Amino acid sequence: MSTGLQVAIDGPASAGKSTVAKLVAKKFGYIYCDTGAMYRAVTVAALQEGIAMDDTEKIADLAKQIKITFQPAEPEQRVFINGQEVTRDIRLPKVAKNVSAVAAIPAVRQEMTKQQRQIAAEGGIVMDGRDIGTTVLPNAPVKIFMVATAYERARRRYLENKQKGITTSSLEELQRAIELRDKKDSTRKVSPLTQASDAIRLDTTNLTIDEVVEKISEIIKKTEKHLA
Ligand code: CDP
Ligand code: CDP
């Protein structure tokens, strides 16, 4: 019996990838893997070690040494670096500001891609990120490219931070920071954020979380039928 499909969900910051990916995984009994959290964890580790953000060699070495693990939990999965919990640390503005630079280091991407392929090897997984459909799992039978306007994405992140009690900048500043990160992610040399040619584009600007989950579930069911 098949253990399930590989489902790749890519897109810019705050398009709704992780929220939806988590719910879809739960619905189908699949594993959920947040690859953004892995790049954020490398960034936290580098900051903790006091490594300069332009010291690409040291950051790459560090990425190879640390072990990033996840533990399912509600409302969000817990993240650990070598057993030390960093669930809250990875969401700090300082980390959001530096993560794109860390994620642009080729050796860091190589290491994370290797680990992500190992996690996804058995199938039955929903993996979200920027390069899952293009680089990490190019043969995934379901690929979604999730988008929403920058204003809507900043609004969502603003509300989320407020709810979580995370100190946040103004909505305008948040939108600027998101646009800057989108630009860095889309223009970097290695595995930039781009839609895979065989991915389905899903604009979530005017969709609720449930509506997006429903649309992706339909795509998975159709693909399962097609492959059966
Ligand atoms: O949740 P949010 O959309 O803010 O970002 P994330 O998914 O946590 O990813 C944080 C950062 O990690 C992104 O801005 C990218 O720079 C990087 N990333 C990446 O390069 N490749 C991935 N597969 C996932 C994330
Ligand atoms: O993972 P990504 O950065 O793409 O986005 P997310 O962290 O899943 O979603 C960002 C915020 O938008 C969360 O607070 C979600 O609850 C919210 N969201 C929404 O309001 N409507 C959607 N259709 C999807 C997400």
From TrEMBL:
Main location: cytoplasm
Keywords: ATP-binding, Cytoplasm, Kinase, Nucleotide-binding, Transferase
Statement: the UniProt record of this protein carries the keyword Lyase: no
Any one GO molecular function term: kinase activity
Similarity comment: Belongs to the cytidylate kinase family. Type 1 subfamily.
Enzyme type, top EC level: transferase
Catalytic activity of the protein: dCMP + ATP = dCDP + ADP; CMP + ATP = CDP + ADP
Binding-site positions, ATP: 11-19
Gene3D superfamilies xrefs: P-loop containing nucleotide triphosphate hydrolases
Subcellular location: Cytoplasm
This protein's encoding gene: cmk
Pfam family, one: Cytidylate_kin
Domain Cytidylate kinase: 7-221
UniProt-listed Enzyme Commission number(s): 2.7.4.25
Regions annotated as coiled coil: none
HAMAP family noted in UniProt: Cytidyl_kinase_type1 (MF_00238)
Protein name: Cytidylate kinase
